[in-house]
Amino acid sequence: MKFHETNLNDAWLIELEPRGDDRGHFARTMCRDEFSEHGLIADFKQQNMSFSAQRGTLRGLHYQHPPHAEAKLVRCLRGAIVDVIVDVRRDSSTYLQHQLFELTDSNRQQLYVPPGFAHSFLTLTDDVEVSYLVSESYCPDAEDGLRYSDTALGISWPVPITVLSEKDANWPLIDERTQPLF
Question: How far apart are CA 132 and CA 44, in angstroms?
Fold first, then answer.
């Protein structure tokens, strides 16, 4: 695996290194030793899978508060997504900054999202499957999110958002919050 730093502190884009022959190819998608060498969490408690039927489906921006804050390792298995992360750690020099990553079934790149980041993805094609490892178990009481359209974030989504959950449409705006984000 090749680890590429991103513009956001502690987030990494991971490029797989397929080895192939006449049968096809093989690649490691996670290695505890290599993750540890880069200071990444390598103890995952869950693996989640998401299927979205329509292009323009938005999921997120989600995160969990400590002590349930979670790291994620995200990969698009079918189709294409733009994955968006936002640093919500108040003490970070990249606080409230975001970055977009195109993850597709053909580029086979993965995104390591550290704890303290809101995470979202928007489908760029129909019939999208996304798989992600998560370092903490889901805890409904620790769940939080950012509104995708919050002008304080300034996210420019690459395709129109046509499918969105009511919860994701109604997260409070940053300026309306009375408690810290993270």
Answer: 10
pLDDT tens digits for 127-154? 999 999 999 999 999 999 999 999 999 9
Catalytic residue among 63, 112, 132, 148: 132
Q: How far apart are CA 68 and CA 162, in angstroms?
A: 31
Cis ω for the linkage preceding 160 (within 30 of 0): no
Query: Is 25 an active-site residue?
Result: no
Q: Kindly give, in sequence order, each residue whose CB lies less than 8 Å from that of residue 149, ignoring residues fewer than 6 positions away.
A: none
Out of 25, 62, 65, 148, the active site residue is 62
Cis peptide leading into residue 67 (ω within 30°): yes
Are the C-beta atoms of residues 50 and 60 closer than 8 Å to each other?
A: no
Q: Number of helices and strands (H, E) in the chain? A: 2, 14
Closest CA to 79 of 59, 102, 48: 102
Residue-level length of the chain:
182
What pTM was computed for the model?
A: 0.95
119 is catalytic: no
Distance between CA atoms of residues 4 and 53, nearest Å: 30
Q: Are strands 163-164 and 57-64 parallel, antiparallel or unpaired?
A: parallel
Backbone angles phi, psi at 37, to 5 degrees: -60, -30
